[in-house]
Design a protein that fits this description.
Two copies of one chain form a homodimer. Chain A has 16 helices and 16 strands. The first copy, chain A, is of the alpha/beta class and about 400 residues long. Chain A has two domains: about 290 residues, TIM Barrel (Alpha-Beta Barrel); about 100 residues, no CATH class. In chain A, the strands form five sheets. A six-stranded parallel beta sheet of chain A has the order 4-14-13-12-11-10. The first copy, chain A, has a three-stranded antiparallel beta sheet with strand order 1-2-3. A three-stranded antiparallel beta sheet of chain A has the order 7-8-9. In chain A, β2 and β3 form a beta hairpin.
Chain lengths: ~400, ~400
């Protein structure tokens, strides 16, 4: 089986969009690719069979959550995540940094960031060594360092791992964003060193992505993009763009960062993927992105539908107006939910808080997004991205 | 499409068990058949596709719940339950009587039954006309009568309907059990009259089962069995045997009632189906039975497994001992859950309260039971029921 390898198969003529394929030992990921989030080693309400039927190529698992529950012992005895889950396709794990940092009180964190001092946060304490935190489950104390993050991700065994970083909350001062970025850079070196020390143990099958930080500051983002690109990471993740910025600021960050990234390295955008972001990030040259949006919306009954007749992307199936509606969620959709179930019944399932509601709506939203991504990939290769974008965004 | 019709295809030599087939316009139900319960028009956590894969032939919907939510308007506009749910196979509905009666405080009800006066129950008031009750959802007041029950079940449109009865709680005095039985008999006549008055509207596709009551009293049960059998019901349901009696008393009721039922009428046992009851009720000559057991147990993580090495039928997957267990739930099971998932992962899903846990375990339990029923049907036709029973019960 071949190791990690990225091929570019086509480029858009009017934007920086590119279509390609990431080869991993667990199979290929065609890009641009949406990566659903399965926080606790399950994309909420979906079976592996559901994900395969949808065409999901890879999903994202949160290291922090698995480290605490079921814990490393169960995963290690289960021969790693793929075998534990029973999922034979690619997986990604994060470094646990963002999740740990999020444990702190967000408002207090932001205030401290603005004051330039993020070091004292309830539940979380950041130092050069790493991050001390208390479990949200039982209050037990833990220390995560770059070395620990790599060790934990090695045990999880995902195809793509993320380097341990310090995610800077928005808004933050330039001073704090700079400190966090610099620490992220030092931690990047420690992650690479930890990975090479583990070489014997660490399967060559696992790839490590570096993380670009720098808040919403052009100088810092450029500096981080250049530095992280210079290190031997085969892929680059862009962090800190899903913590409260406006859509405009996300675009700015991509404008500053992506042109400085080497073409041959894959580019992953962490935590972004609202439906109206997708064409933007694809056109800026992003290859993959993870987001909880389609699954979380699905569990709330907010369904993705094509924007027709000035309708928004989202249809709230829990509204009383759908109680007797015999139409499928989206008449243009071929998913099994739209082929076999009507809006009235799904409305009833939500009102009655029936488990089936969450599954049907998650399935539809993921199918909708995968379908959009397939169309985008084909469009890039056929040099028709602008037409497809026009069709979708009208 | 042919109307309701029951054929007996084989009889056991050593017991009263029989194998047959119930024909309905929505397809056949091979008997003996287990009927899963989908209280709110969904077998909790199962899609129609799941039920079909399992081989579920028919499921049971609670009239009381659907009457209150989504309400008759949504179902009527949706062209009846089959179309509303998107389920093309047979369905059963109950009369709503048992559910309404259950609204009252059970302990108080029992006390009143023992005193011989069940007429004053919080939320519920029974009279000759019918039952007044308050919705458990919004406290609104409603009156269900035999005529109303038939009208509501007509709108729901299930293939098999149940006559409106007064279910007598256990333990009750002979006096109260007699009064409740006599009322059930008078209500049976009113249900039949209501059905024939509606003949124009009421689809000939729907069949009405009469209900035998009489508590745990031999004289009453025999009287009820004879009387209900004498009325023009094509099928007989046996009620009031899932409200607290011992297994011994359930057997007694079947011993008194079933021999008095005409062979050509189908026999449904209401609300019974613990795994160790199944051989008993089949041997007593029951054709179908509904029970929430396998689905409810599944959602609690109690999984049905073959009784090997003195193990009980149930395996509690939430126990810590399964956290690193790489085996499937049941090594002898061919369901997709046992083929693709291990105990350690399912244990994790339960501990993390992930939605997938409930679906996987419900699927397995239903598959397990359907498989058992298939084996029992074949065994009856091949005159091997005692061997199969021995194998299963060891």
């Amino acid at each position: 089986m071949s190791k990690f390898n990225f091929e570019i198969l086509g480029k858009d003529v009017k934007s920086d969009a590119r279509a390609g394929v990431i080869h991993t030992v667990h199979g290929d990921i065609k890009t641009p690719s949406f990566v659903p989030v399965g926080t606790q080693a399950t994309v909420k309400s979906m079976s592996n069979e559901d994900l395969q039927e949808i065409g999901v190529q890879v999903f994202f698992v949160n290291t922090y959550h698995l480290y605490l529950r079921p814990g490393l012992e169960a995963i290690e005895k289960g021969n790693g995540l793929h075998s534990f889950i029973g999922w034979g396709k690619p997986l990604m794990t994060d470094s646990a940094g963002f999740q740990i940092f999020s444990l702190g009180d967000v408002n207090r964190q932001r205030k401290l960031c603005l004051q330039g001092d993020p070091l004292e946060i309830p539940l979380v304490k950041i130092s050069e060594e790493g991050v001390k935190f208390r479990s949200h489950l039982d209050g037990s104390g833990h220390l995560f360092t770059p070395e620990k993050s790599i060790e934990v991700q090695r045990i999880l065994g995902a195809d793509i791992m993320i380097a341990f970083d310090e995610c800077c909350y928005y808004p933050a001062t330039h001073d704090y964003a700079k400190k966090a970025m610099e620490r992220t850079h030092r931690w990047a070196l420690r992650c690479l060193a930890a990975k090479s020390k583990l070489q014997g143990k660490l399967s060559e099958r696992q790839t490590l992505y570096g993380v670009v930080q720098g808040g919403v500051f052009e100088d810092l983002r450029r500096q981080s993009a250049k530095y992280i690109s210079s290190l031997p990471f085969p892929g680059i993740a862009i962090g800190g763009v899903a913590v409260g910025e406006s859509k405009k600021e996300m675009k700015d960050v991509l404008d500053w960062v992506v042109p400085l990234l080497p073409e041959e390295k894959t580019r992953h955008l962490l935590g972004v993927g609202e439906i109206d972001d997708i064409f933007t990030l694809v056109e800026k040259g992003i290859d993959s992105f993870d987001c909880v949006m389609p699954t979380r919306l699905g569990r709330m009954g907010h369904l993705l539908v094509r924007k027709v007749e000035n309708r928004e992307w989202k249809l709230d199936i829990t509204k009383a107006m759908y109680a007797s509606d015999k139409r499928p969620i989206d008449e243009n959709c071929d998913c099994f939910v739209c082929r076999n179930y009507n809006r009235g019944y799904i409305n009833h399932l939500f009102r009655a808080k029936e488990l089936l509601a969450y599954r049907l709506c998650t399935f539809h939203n993921l199918f909708f997004l995968e379908n959009l991504m397939r169309e985008i990939r084909t469009a890039i290769k056929e040099e028709k991205l602008d037409q497809v974008k026009k069709k979708w965004l009208q």
